[in-house]
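Handout, section B. The chain below has 307 residues.
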Amino acid sequence: MDKVIRIGTRESQLALWQAHQVNNLLVAQGYRTELVPIKSEGDIDLVTPLYEIGVQGIFTKSLDLALLNNRIDIAVHSFKDVPTQLPLQLKQAAVLERGPVKDLLVYKTNTDFLEQPDYIAAIATSSVRRKAQWLRKYPSHQIFNLRGNVNTRLQKLADENWDGAIFAAAGLERIHVRPATSIELDWMLPAPAQGAVVAVCREDDTFCLEACAAFNHAPTALATYIERDFLRTLMGGCTTPISAYAYIENNIVHFEGELCSLDGTKFFQASRQASADQATDLGRDAAQEILAKGGAEVVAQIRNVKS
């Protein structure tokens, strides 16, 4: 195969890990490849909270533009960063088999503070979803903004006088930097498509679309579609406290979705089950249930805050 497939990636260690997974899958099929690192706006501004800089697409925009401008042939994204509506002329080409989906608390010394109701812990995260869920469980705690790639955030935690910070398990474990001082947050529902990696191509690039189709992981593609459909129906983005998780067991899809107010005081939840061949509407139906139960008011309030 003479054509060299140019794989676009952000420059962080985690993004490069993701790009190498796609690269290896293509090389295994006999394709020639090249990695093309591209800096994103989200990597440049590490100070401003994400909800203040219009986060939707901030980690994917630069790669998508490079794809549209024919500088690269495939863009590799952390799927949870991808807006529910891809830019015109771009198409989801493959979803890789999902990794860990849970969030972790990385703590400084111990977790005794979690059992001390009068203690005001300092917890760091840039995610409004994690902030809202944390405040729902620990309303007296203080939340601090934490931006940057995985290694930068771990160093920031070490440098600051915080009790802990929240990370995605997949991000820490994939590049082998999960500290021993970490615990899985079983009660925290993840972001839609958390732990999944997606490859995006131009919709008229049949060569790359066919190449990627060979490693599309159908169960992960279905689960993430349901989760993102839940997000899409709620008309949310990365700056909305929306959580969703779908998994398949014995050909049955189990789905759970949540919507929180920004401060965590209001909370809506819906769950669904269906056979895998009848599950595509689970996310949409659950979202409509939440909107009908009062979630529409919370979504409207969040929009007013952001505007």
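Note. Residues 26 and 99 are 19 Å apart (CA to CA). Compare this with the example in section A.
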